[in-house]
């Protein structure tokens, strides 16, 4: 069964390796990558989203350079050296993937990369970035993140970024927002997505969404893509099983979201893994477990069909 995975951090790993050694990891089969090409093939991944992520420790005047480096590696190492990896530059490109091809989608995790320079944001759109998360866990010029103690909401700049996202039919990702930023965003965003978040009522972690947030996402036709980080599955634990993850799927379904659930693994961004989901090649283990509890149509929805039905411009 095909998989669409809306979050991984392979670009950061590629960049860090190149900065350390002068050479990027081999995207075809490097054991250091959860999402290398062969593993994506083995896991039946039809589209993989690749996040541009700039660590908050990077000085402000270097952040754009870091973003450019990651985008360059996307073009040279991922789609440049793997003919079967096809750059998804707009939402219609999903419909043109051929047998054996894997779509590659650029996303931005945190607006720090462009600061308050909306010309840079427009360049990101032109380069094919299709989803923008305003923050990582810290605050920036757009909003407060989930880890910012003051818990503020969107700034005027953040509101303008969402307006531009709407205008360009780009997802606005809520996964790392503070609670106040989330509610500000849900009022404004035409295309909300939680690219890698779980249910807070089952695991009380700031990165997860509470029931009211979840229901608001469904009302706004948004997607919530379950994440494989054990700390977001079982509170206070670095271990989790696939049945533990399915508790979150069950809960989202109970809140009326069976048609709004997807997958956002966070591979290459997590150091602990769900048992049986150690890398992208093991997606079939998740599908097999889902098929024990849900209909084939529902499982296809979770795996890829819900995303295709709710991508921007399809409503």
Automatic annotation (TrEMBL):
CDD domains recorded: rDP_like
GO biological process: proteolysis
SUPFAM superfamilies xref list: Metallo-dependent hydrolases
Gene Ontology MF: a single term: metallodipeptidase activity
Pfam families on file: Peptidase_M19 (PF01244)
Name the UniProt record assigns to this protein: Membrane dipeptidase
Organism: Planococcus salinus
